[in-house]
Model the fold of this input.
Amino acid sequence: MDTYFTLIWITIIAVGIFMYVVLDGFDLGVGILSRAAPSIAERDLMIASVSPFWDGNETWLILGAVGLLAAFPMAFAIIVPALYFPVLMMLVGLMFRGVAFEYRTVPSALSPVWDHGFFAGSVLAAFSQGVMLGMFVEGFTVTGRVFSGSSFDWVAPFPLLSGLALVFGYALLGAGWLVLKTEGGLQDWARAMGRRMLGLVLAFIVIVSLYMLFHQPQVIGRWISFPNILLLWPVPLGAALAALGAWRGFGGTHEIQPFLATVAMFGMSFLGLAISLWPMIVPATVDLWTASASPNSQAFLLVGTAVLLPVVLAYTAWSYWVFRGKVRADSGYGH
Done:
């Protein structure tokens, strides 16, 4: 039974993280793209397109973090000290971004400063999350059950490259969202930006994949060994088809296809990463079952989650339904 509880909890955490990456990813992406907006009026429209959603999207980050603490306390105790500075940078970026959201609509001489702050906070939050992903892929220095590395292990080529990759990845999601939510010249601009970001993201995916294959021998063995090679080929194929769909969507007239194809591409990449690292929750030292809490604790926490998670899903779906359709110049935050 403890195995089932562990699998349920890692599924909940994985879903929470993926929901955060997609939902907060597109609004961080809009913030990243905001500095390149064709005009101030169109920048306002871009920000208005995410203003009803940005704070609610961060709920999923809390769910993932709290789930990790509650269900896998050993992993939490190892990972958090290793990622102390990237987590701190992410929180600073998110907080500064939230303040900029509030104050940029207040007429004053500082309005341009808050626009810069919104952009900088978005970039910092996205970059920090990418660094954390890079650290997770590389693995952590662990002695016994304690992190024994340095708080500055993240200052290394691969985590920094991963940070830059996620900035462009979120910008790609943001471009897909803008195609969906805007029209006219701003939509055309978002399509052009989407194709540029897609090319960069694909290049980063190739680099990250090659790094994992050549620097982690167990990963390449998992993907090319028999019968895995027959079972797992739909994952890279699905990612390639999603990328093709995104490219065609940004270049055509479809409005929902670019965003959905980009989400599918992120989903296939997320699944590929999970397959490569399974069953390690602290690569490459601690697996899920070693790090998990007692079955009684997991079962008790699951009762509360079974009540809370449907509520989160319901209000998320409701908010997106209420604010469906194209964003207008007189809509959005602060109006």
